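RETRY 2/3 - previous attempt timed out on the joint model. Re-submitting the same 1164-residue input unchanged.
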Amino acid sequence: LAGSRPLQHGRGSALRDVANRLRVRALRARGNHPTSCCSAAEIAAVLFFQAMRYWARQPAHPSNDCFVLSKGHAAPLLYAAWAEASFLKEPELLNLRKINSDLEGHPTPRLPFVDVATGLLGQGLGVACGMAYSRQVLRQGQVSALGGRPSLGQMAGENWVAMGGAGVGKLGEAWPGCDPTLSGQWVDPGSHWGENPGVLAHFCSLPGGGSLPGVEDAENWHGKPMPKDKVESIIGAIQSQIQTHEVLVPQPPIEDVPQISIAGICMPSPSEYTTGDKVATRKAYGVALAKLGAASEHVVALDGDTKNSTFSELFKQAHPERYIECYIAEQNMVSVILGCAARDQAVVFASTFAAFFTRAFVHIRMGAISQSNLNLCGSHCGVSIGEDGPSQMALEDIAMFRAIPGCTVFYPSDAVSTERAVCLAANTKGICFIRTSRPETPVIYPPEETFEIGQAKVVHKSDADRVTVIGAGVTLHEALAAAHELAKQGTHIRVIDPFTIKPLDAATIVNSAQATGGRIITVEDHYTEGGIGEAVAGEPGMVLQSLAVCGVPQSGKPAELLDLFGISTKSIIAAVKNTFAS
Amino acid sequence: LAGSRPLQHGRGSALRDVANRLRVRALRARGNHPTSCCSAAEIAAVLFFQAMRYWARQPAHPSNDCFVLSKGHAAPLLYAAWAEASFLKEPELLNLRKINSDLEGHPTPRLPFVDVATGLLGQGLGVACGMAYSRQVLRQGQVSALGGRPSLGQMAGENWVAMGGAGVGKLGEAWPGCDPTLSGQWVDPGSHWGENPGVLAHFCSLPGGGSLPGVEDAENWHGKPMPKDKVESIIGAIQSQIQTHEVLVPQPPIEDVPQISIAGICMPSPSEYTTGDKVATRKAYGVALAKLGAASEHVVALDGDTKNSTFSELFKQAHPERYIECYIAEQNMVSVILGCAARDQAVVFASTFAAFFTRAFVHIRMGAISQSNLNLCGSHCGVSIGEDGPSQMALEDIAMFRAIPGCTVFYPSDAVSTERAVCLAANTKGICFIRTSRPETPVIYPPEETFEIGQAKVVHKSDADRVTVIGAGVTLHEALAAAHELAKQGTHIRVIDPFTIKPLDAATIVNSAQATGGRIITVEDHYTEGGIGEAVAGEPGMVLQSLAVCGVPQSGKPAELLDLFGISTKSIIAAVKNTFAS
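RETRY 2/3 succeeded.
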């Protein structure tokens, strides 16, 4: 395990020259944050050419040390470092922020040396903790995160959390001998580094404008490109300080990382549910996750201090060494899981109340920009949680996750389909969200039933069907009850379980609509906006009625609330009749 | 100004008895968190019957001191205190969490003694800071926030931020003589209180189960109702400790709060834009906000360290004493603004990049549950920001705000309509979101043009129109360019500016669709999901083509990106032609 790596002494002047070459490149690139780049030049020089071990020609090599540029607006500095390491060609740096270049304004994994996209201040330390966690399981690697003063200043909130139980603290606990530290304000190349052992180094950069003649410590330079008339004289002044042209070669990594595969994970045993059993989908999630953990040692689970409600506790009981308790800090939880998932080192699942994932929306969207493979399970969706009231009811989570590019949104309606959703999520790229419910509902699928992403199930059907009703979770069971009640009255309806809301099985829905006179009713335990109804409304050739929760709900018994907010069996029957009235 | 209020000595035993009566009531109510209630009973007793000044019969009296139950799951304790104060009747407490009662599982403003809904841990201190801020402007009042260990523990993140620049620190700075403090772990009634001066007291409650025989300090009691067989013996044990039945009457407030009105604010002068001027809507926001601040001394503005990008700096320059810099801490900013807005003490506007409001989604949703009147302005929406890349581009913000109950979503397309949006937002209940853009776009409305919420403008029209195109912000200007280009080719289209996306002017849209053969095209600088296209798709009798951003974007020039993601003039012309091809 890499940890403390004292500097080779006598390299100080060469490192100072590297730092100044990085400054010159960052200024030439004409980015928007020259001071933020220049203030961290020494730190980058020391990290990339002294402390870190990596193959410069293979930036994504699994054995390479990891680096997170938490202050993503200093991207030109990162690009300059990879040019110094000869991975990027000098002329490419001048394509910064151009449409045909991968050198974006803030770093993204379009570049092989970027594991996690940054540009949202404050997330870096949590991400680095997650990376270090995957790595410490493998007993190797050093992870560094570089943050600016805002990261350690106003954004301290997130960093304090990251330093706590689920962050650096967890590493120390999970990994005896690891002594993670935050290092200080200033790095004097050639000294001190050796005094900062540990898996994580989170630096605060220098005062704005570090070493820029006429700019250092002056006000109002942050976030402003260097004016053309100034830039050449500043570059000249910096170049005049360069004493040697010694090229420093980074140390190679210790190649101790086995190539692991996280693909093709199968459940070790079939589902053990019997049709008619009453099982909450949130519990089926926990059962499935524990089974998945037995299928692969690379499955890691996190929870935000709700494990006895989300049932991730079943995973913890079975695989305690691969469970990370993140406490009530959902933002940090998502930062940590982003890091855990980096470089395909783990299959990661994080769970909490679906309502509380709204606290991490910005981190989830960064996960999409990071091309990250995350699985998130949100329990206690909708008014059907009952007495705890609106603050605990997720009614906007489908809208939130549908708006995440490439996100797969699972909304299983029974225990068997929940188990399939967990297994499919483990094997699906991108961000997956699994929405689970609190109430116990009957198992409707046989244990051997197969499910595919984007494939709906027609769960109730006859040739006489005159309306198609789409329900999910608790409302699918309300729709089935409505179908049976209406059948007694001689009205037949078709009932569809979409299984995934994104992607949506448009073909099955459109075909059913055609078979039922174009009449479609959606019923969901979610707000109207961004929910199932709006997802379906985009499809052509149907007359849609959307039954959804309108307005802020309240406490009450689940059944009372389904009635009050018009998504119960009663409301579905009324809507079906209304379809013909109009 | 209320601040330090030494306890009247010799009341300690009476306060201890109050605390035990609160425990008994909380246990009788059979809530889910008896230990969380009982552990804070002494604190509640001291606050409600010693420290705070209020009219118990008029809980919403403007001169009353304020109390925020940050640990909202201890709601039964709050209800018990108001029963002790004789505002609630004892039997009502037994209706806790029932559908016909306002005593919800977590407190909401359906109760007159609740200013801000809680149930999301960690927000209380920021909210209390905001309340104290509105109050200190009025030179009165004491605000207390009560949080549990999670609030001060794992959730420390948010609280550290609240203690910083934009929170308690700001109060000290804005209000010389205010010495806000966090008081300690334990309150011994009858002592110490006097040593904790200041406007804010944020307590950590006792170890789980405080004073519950057989429960105190035992494991696994958190969040569990007391079992029926145990509860009576525990209640008996507590009652046996009650020595007196002295009823303590809270101290009346100092009635020094003038009744203020924040209704009917009008701009002091007409818009000063000329049709054809090129002005960014983000700049028009700053201009309008500064004018609004001149119209009413009750207008307060906050920003998340982006004031020179959102142009809220124009308000700061004009009204520095009513500007709160919240730095890069959007969650705390929304908590603070929630508090500022409480009890209609201020007209509040907060601004940052629209992308960064996703960091505060959970706080915004709590704002809706709090029935709060907030105005949020998100700048730099969409790919049209250009080079900074996807982490800075808001493409999910319309989806997010549409999913907030009762939220008004303004998406102005020029400077005049932006100024109207700001004035309408100031006079509109609930949460208002104003989406502004980075690029400069032409002013298209005359200065005297009037706008209404839910009223769209048909900005381009002829009797020969064959397609209706709906655009907003930069895409409205792309649509107008397409209309002119197509007209040259003999194809006429109608162009609509929706002005508000929620509520949507369905009548105008449906009428235009009917007038143009049912053919509608929406074009938006936002992801497909939850955006303008889906909002329109719900309307009947139209064939809709939705042009929106698909997939994670990248850096580039704004015009290049509009083309690349298919929302430019070129793409609109192609879509119009495609409408007839199919």
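Chain A touches chain B through 84 residues (CB under 8 Å). Closing ticket.
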